[in-house]
Amino acid sequence: MGAKVPEPRQNDPDTLARQIVEKMTYSICKHPEQARKYDWLRAVTLVVRDRIIDRWFASTDRIRQSKDKRVYYLSMEFLIGRLLRDAINNLQLTGAIREALKRYNVELDMVELLEPDAALGNGGLGRLAACFMESMASTGVPGVGYGIRYVHGFFRQEIAEGAQVELPETWLVHGNPWEFERRDSTYEIGFGGKVLTQQEPGKPPRHVWRPAERVLAVAYDTPIVGWRGEQVNTLRLWSAQAVDPILLDAFNSGDHIGALVESNKAEAITRVLYPADSHQAGQELRLRQEYFFSAASLQDIIRRHLGENDSLDNLADKVAIQLNDTHPAVSVAELMRLLVDVHGYEWGKAWEITRATFGYTNHTLLPEALEHWPINLFERLLPRQMQIIYQINADVIREASQKGFDGSQISAISLIDEGHGRRVRMGQLAFVGSHAVNGVSALHTELMKETVFRNLHDLYRDRIQNKTNGVTPRRWLMESNPGLTGLLTEAIGPGFLDDVEKLRDADPLAGDAGFRDRFAAVKRANKARLADVISDRLAITLDPDAIFDIQVKRIHEYKRQFLNIIEAIALYNQIRAHPEKDWTPRVKIFAGKAAPSYVQAKEIIHLANDVARVINSDPSVRDLLKVVFIPNYNVSLAEIIMPAADLSEQISTAGLEASGTGNMKFALNGALTIGTLDGANVEMLEHVGEDNIFIFGLKADEVAQRRRETHSGRSIIERTPLLREAVNAISTGVFCPESPARYHTLVSSLYNNDWWMICADFEAYWETQRHLDELFLRQDEWQAKAIRNTARMGWFSSDRSIREYATDIWHAGPGKRA
Ligand code: 26W
C-alpha cells in the first residue's frame, strides 16, 4: 500500500523561522537565546530533513509501484562532502532559510560551514560516485548507492615543518543527522570455514558453504536529494557489528576484555577507509571490507527483488548493478554462489543472469593499482567464491581456446595470475562477469583496449565502451559559485539551471566588454574569498590581481606536482636574474594528500612547502611570485578553490590520468587549463576549442615510445639551463639548508630514468606558462577565453554521463520504463 503523500510544507521565511525555533526547543531542548552555533546547524538540518523525508517517501513509493528497473551503484567510496547546502539548494530553500535565520541574527553561510565533511573516499573515484548519486536523483534514475559506513573517513592532513602528518578523521563524533539506522535491514556475512559437497546420483554436486565466522551488516540510509527535490534516492552504507556483542562465557568467567574480542574484530571491518589510491594495500582487512559490503548489498538487492517478483529469473530485467572499479568485483562470484548454491540455478543460467546484471567501470591503468589477491588468502577467507572463480576461469579459457587464442593470450586473459605467487586478478573477474565494461574518458577507453584488457577485448569485442566522466553543476557551479550563477542567470536566463548545456547561450557574451568586466569581477571576488581563507589559515597575504595558478588533487608522481614546483623554482630564478623584466605576478597554489605509505609523494609535499617558505620570504621576488600549500584538501575546500582559479593545472604524464574531474570543475568556473593531452583534457579541447585551452608536452603514444627507449633525464637537464639551475637548487639544499640531502632520491629519479617525463616535458611547459603570462596582461582576451570555457563545459555535467550509462549500460531510467 502506498503511503499517503503529505501536504507540501510551507516554504516561506515565517514558517521556516517558526519551525527552526520549534526544533531548537523540542528536539534540541535549547531556548533560542541560549543556542550555540552548532545548535543552529542541527535545528536547520532537522527542518530541511523533514521536507526531504516527505519527498523520500514519495519517491520510494513511486519507484516501487512503477516496477521500473533499479540501478545499484556499488562503490567502496562516496566522497560526498557536506550535505546541508546541497539539500537546501536542490529544494530551492536558500533564500527563505537565509531570511528566516536573519531574524535570529544567524548567517546561513556560517551555519553551513559547521557541518563536517563526509570524507568516505580518497579522491576521483569517490567524488565521481558522489556526483553520480546526485545526478541519478536529478535525472530521475531510480538509483541506490551501496558502500561502507567508515567510522573514520579519509585522514586529516596537517603540515608540520613542511611535512605531511596524518591525523584520524572523526566525522561521526557529534552524530550524523542525515543517516537513519535500519535495523530491519541487517544481514549475516560469513568468512572462512569450509565447503561441503553433496553428491546425489544423476545430479550435479551441491555445494554448501559453512563459514567459520559471521559478522552482521547493518544498513544506514542517507537521502540524496535531486535537483528541485523531484526525486530523492538512497545511499545505503553498511556498518559491521558482531553477532554476539559480548561473549557471555568469557565475561562470566571474569575475562572482561576477552569477552569483547569478537565485537572488536567484527567492527574493525568498517572502522577505517584505506587511504591509498595508487597502490593495492593487499591486506586481509581490505579484502574483508570488499566482500563484506558486496555480500550485504547483494543480499539486500535479492531480498527486495524477491519481495516484488516471483523468482530471480528476471533479475537482470529489473536490476542493474554497476561495479565502481574492481573493489566490489567479488560480487560476481558471490552472485553466482547465491544463484547456484542458495537458489538452485543451473550454472549456465546463473552465469547468464550474472553477466546481464553487472557492469564494470575501470578507473585506472596504473599496473601498481590493479587489484590482485594471493590465492591462499582468498581461499582461506572465501573458499566457495574461490571455487567459483576457478570454474568461471575454466569456462573463459575454454572459450578462448576454441576461438584459437594462443598460450600467451590465454595467460593474459586468465583470472589467475600464475606469475606472482598465484593471484586472483579482480579486473579480469569484473570484466568477464559484466555485459558492459567502460572507461571514463575517450582516450582512457582506447588505452584499455590496447593495454590491460587487450586480449579480453579481442575475445569479447563489443564489451568495452566509453562513458566520459562528468561533475554535478549543482554543487560545482550553483552552490560553490553563487556569484557566477547569478551573473549567468541575469545574462542568459535561468534555463541552464535545468539543462546545463544551455550555458552555450553565454558564448557570444565573450565578445561583450560589459559582460567580460562583470565576469572578471565575479572571479576577482572569488579569488579574494580564497585569499582570505589562506590568510586566516596560513598568514600568507595574496594579491587577488595576480594569476591564481592552481593544482589541487591527490599527490602522485604521475600527476606531476613536481614538474609544477620545478617550474616555480625556474621562475623564481628568472625573476631574480632579470628584475628589469615585466613579470606577471603569479600565485602558485597547491593542495592534496599523499598516501601515508607513498614516500615520494610525501617528499613532493615537503618540497612544495620548503620552496614556498624560501620564495615567500625572499624580498627580491617583490611579491611577483608566491607559492602556497593549503593543508587538508577536501571537498569543502575544493568548493572555495575551484571558483577562484585563473589557471587550472592538469599536467599528468600523458596516458596515465584516466579522466580527471577537477579539470572539469575548474573550466566550468571559468579557469583556463594548462594541460597535457590526457584523460578528459582531450575532450575538453574538442569542446572549448584549441584557442581556449593550453596543451603542451608529449602525447600518450610518445610517452610509451620513450619509455621503451630507456629515455633518461640527464642529457635534457644538462642541455637545458633553466631546468639545470632549478634542479641544482633542489639538490644543493637551497630550500632545505637544515638538511641539504633531503631531496636526493627525488632528484636522482629525474637524472636516471625520468619515468614521469618531467625533464622531457619541462621546456614545453615553461614556454606555455610564459605565453600565459603574456596573455594574462591582455585581460580582454583572457576573460573572453574564460567565458568560452564556462559556456562550453555543459557537456561535462554528470547528468550527461548518467544518461549515457542509463541508456547504453543499465537500460533504465526515464524513457526506459519497463
Ligand atoms: C586498490 C587501491 C586503489 C584505490 C583506488 C586503486 C585505485 C583506486 C582508484 C581507481 C583511483 C582513482 O580514484 N582513479 C581516478 O578515478 C577518477 C574517476 O573516474 C578519474 O577521474 C581519475 O583520472 C582517476 O585517477
Task: Please describe what this structure looks like.
The chain has 33 helices and 24 strands. It has three domains: 1-66 and 83-116, no CATH class; 69-74 and 118-468, 3-Layer(aba) Sandwich (Rossmann fold), CATH 3.40.50.2000; 496-796, Glycogen Phosphorylase B (Rossmann fold, 3-Layer(aba) Sandwich), CATH 3.40.50. The two termini are 21 Å apart. By secondary structure, it is an alpha/beta fold. Helix 23 links the parallel strand 20 (586-591) and strand 21 (625-629). The longest helix is centred in the N-terminal third of the chain and has 30 residues, at 37-66. Helix 11 packs across helix 14. Bound molecules: ligand 26W. Ligand 26W binds next to helix 6.
Tally of structural domains:
3
Strand order of the largest sheet: 7-10-11-4-1-12-13-17-18
Percent in strands = 15-25%
Report the helical percentage: 40-55%
What would you call the shape?
globular
The count of strands amounts to 24
What do we call the CATH topology of the largest domain? Rossmann fold
CATH class of the largest domain: Alpha Beta
**Could you name the ranges where pLDDT drops below 50 across 5 or more consecutive residues?**
none
Radius of gyration: 27 Å
How many helices?
Answer: 33
For the record, give the distance between the C-alpha atoms at the N and C termini, rounded to a whole number.
Answer: 21 Å
Structural class: alpha/beta
Catalytic activity: [(1->4)-alpha-D-glucosyl](n) + phosphate = [(1->4)-alpha-D-glucosyl](n-1) + alpha-D-glucose 1-phosphate
Organism: Jiella sonneratiae
Enzyme class: transferase
EC number: 2.4.1.1
